[in-house]
From TrEMBL:
One of its GO terms (molecular function) is metal ion binding. It catalyses: beta-D-fructose 1,6-bisphosphate + H2O = beta-D-fructose 6-phosphate + phosphate. This is Fructose-1,6-bisphosphatase. It comes from Jaapia argillacea MUCL 33604. Residues 11-200 form the Fructose-1-6-bisphosphatase class I N-terminal domain.
Amino acid sequence: SGEEAPNTDIITLTRHVLNDQFHLGSLATGDLTLLLTAIQTTSKFIATNVRKARLINLVGLAGETNVQGEEQKKLDVLSNDIMVSQLRASGKTAVLVSEELEDAIIVEGRYKGKYCVVFDPLDGSSNIDAGVNIGTIFGIYHIQPDSKGELSDVLRPGSQMVAAGYVMYGSSCNLVMSTGHGVNGYTLDASLGEFILTHPDIRIPSRGKIYSINEGNAAYYYEPVTKYLNSIKFPATGKPYSARYIGSMVADVHRTLLYGGIFCYPDDKKSKSGKLRLLYEAFPMAYLTEQAGGVATTGRMRILDIVPKGIHERCPVFLGSKEDVQDVVKFYQAEAKEV
Ligand code: P6P
């Protein structure tokens, strides 16, 4: 008939992760798959609410009433609540850390499992009124061998995570994830309610042409950052880089993974440790960046080597194409030599 035959070999996230289990060998008990299924469910729920929010003005400050006159929850509070309940109900978690909760949740009783999930349920939610893409960011640790699940299980370097990912809520709903064997991207087919593999084996280009940083902070930058930016804005040879800054980490990192270049949120004279959170923003994005062949550093050390002291601590972030990030590090190393 000449019509394009429907693609019958669609690979769903669940099937892809199940296949992945063969990599994990004996470690694969299905628990991680079930945990990732719970994360998929929360992503679909949040995606629906983010979309509705744009339609019926669900956004705004907590305590206001929405068009139905109901006491409405801020989207990020709602997103947090659904993630906590779904992750606990999965029976696979022992420790939960959320950007929205002051303290870690230790799961007790019959629902206690072997994994710790650290997450920002809706990062960048202040952008939602403007229709900017926002997202959920998550990282997963296995509890330590002699532990039943306690705070020390999440105060570990990001290099000990077994999986990490983000969900971006925009014109489509994209889930990008790694379980330690490369990075894959999935797109939600709302008619099927399934995440379909659309970006297999994402590899970040070794060098890009885009830099992403909030130049509104330029007055506070330390010298290595100023010198690096000048080197790509006024290059001795070649063309200047393009500037792209969305101000929503998931959107800026997603573009960096796909197009290459560098995303920066450095420490400066105003923000002594930078702005981004180590456990559930920097670690998962650094994990994905490295799994895609890129580099993620504070300027002075590999982000995934940091040992967190607290669950909400912040850290400086430079991540993206290997050569671009290594260019920044050279300016920090030059500064260290001057000292
Ligand atoms: P600034 C959003 O509020 C966020 O946490 C990240 O998603 C984003 O990268 C950063 O803050 C933007 O911060 O200071 O540039 O507005």
